[in-house]
Structure formats: structure tokens, C-alpha cells
Amino acid sequence: MAALRYYIALPFLYFLSVLPFRLLYLLSDIFYFFLYHIIGYRKGVVRTNLRNSFPEKSEEEIEVICKKFYHYFCDLFLETFKTLTIGRSAMLEHCVMDPAASELFNRLAADNKSFIIVLGHKGNWEWAGNTFSLLGKHQLYVIYHPLTNKYLDRFMYRMRTRFGGRLIAMKNTFRDMMDKRAELSVTAFIADQTPPPDKAYWLNFLNQDTPVFMGTEKIARKIKYPVVYITIKKVKRGYYTILADLLISPPYLTGDGEITAAYTKRLEEDIIEQPETWLWSHRRWKHKRV
Fold it and tell me: Which residues make Cβ contacts (< 8 Å) with residue 267, sequence separation at least 6?
């Protein structure tokens, strides 16, 4: 049954990928209408998350951000599948590397330093990986959760590695990074996912008690890689810029929780600056401190 659903969906996904951008975003507007006004997909989750994160904002302001988020969310969905067929020049036109970010990455490469990237589900992280793979001197590895549908998982793997990036299953992260220490590489952790409450480090994030993973910090300290924080800023519809800062180097001189707190604070600042481009539909605060 999983195979049947996959092969039925495959032609449609390729059809989406070859649409000109003008038609792609027209389709996204149609998706938005149905998702927001008809289906109401996770609208309660999104509004609750926004209200709790921005208690100082009025209901009118919350609703404006909510609608902008759903527009972005539909764009992101279709942009992701554009990776199937988009060319190199178009990819680099629609997702640009900031000159300061390029200079930082080139300096680390010149010093023969592998490093860790931390980022959130903000902007278009799929396109950012493509652009880094096309322009960077480091081999990019992205930590991911394999999908339960093996056909869809293989499809997503092929799509996400089309421009030279590679994926590492989360359960194999530290072992694979140790195996690749001789290689000039960068490993990207999307660090705003929700851990089990009994294994979490707790911080105040967007005005809420929030569990966060400590794995990125522990690996950085063990393997002694610099930690770079990146944000993907939406410039206008269909166009993004990758910004980067050296967050912690060397990581092994930091205290417990210092790296985690640093990148969580940076992500919070970026979300406040451009709130509609973060993944508000995620049930980020479903756990309470135990």
C-alpha cells in the first residue's frame, strides 16, 4: 500500500517541480486558501503558540502573523519539491549566501577546520542546504529522521542530496561524525525539535519554559568542532539569504548548557525579527517540565 501511494504521488510531485515560479506561487495561494480557510490545518496550535510567544501583541497582530505564516508554509512546501528539477543557477539566484557568511566558511576551510552548524526550522532550510553544497568547500552532512515509508524516504534522500549534500540518520550521528573526522566537513543540526522531557535541557524560549536537545552541544564539546549559527532570512517571496556567525570556538572551553543557551537565544531573536517564517504548526510546547 505504501508503494502504491508513493507511485501515485510521484508524477504529481514532479509536475509541481517543473512549474514556473509564477505558477508555483499561484498554486501556493490556492493551497493557502484551502489550508487556512477551509481545512484549518493546526490553526489552533499555531494561534496558541503565537499568543504564548507574543503575549504583548493584540489578537489582530497575532492574526496577521498567523495568515503570513500559512502563506509561507504553503510556499515552503512547494519550494521544497522544486529541488527535484531546479538548476544550479536558479538555485543560487533564489537562495543567496551572504558575503560575510561566505568569508567565514572560506576561512574555516583555509584553516582546514570542520565545524557544526546549528539552525532552526526558519526560512527555507532545504534550499539553504542546496546553496551551501553548491558553494561551500566543506562536505555538508545534515542530521535527519528517516521516514517510516521507505519509498518516500528514498525519494526525499535523493532530492536532498541532489546538489552534493549528504544525510546522517540521527541515531548514527556521533559515530558517523567520528568516522569522518579526516574529511573537511560540516554537520548541520536543526536544533529546535522537541526532546522527551526527562532527557531535555530546559530554557526560557519565546516566553515559555521549553525543552531543548543537548546532543549538539555534547557532540561539539567531544569532537572539538567550532559551532556556527546560521539563519535563513526571507528577502521576498521565493528569495532567501543565508547569514552565519561563529557562535562558539573552541567549544570544549564552555560550561554545561552554554552552547545550547547561545544558539537558542539567537534563534529567538531571529524569530522575533521575522516571526512568520518559523514553523509555528509544530507542537513545540507539548511537554511540561518534570
Answer: 119, 120, 122, 191, 192, 205, 229, 231
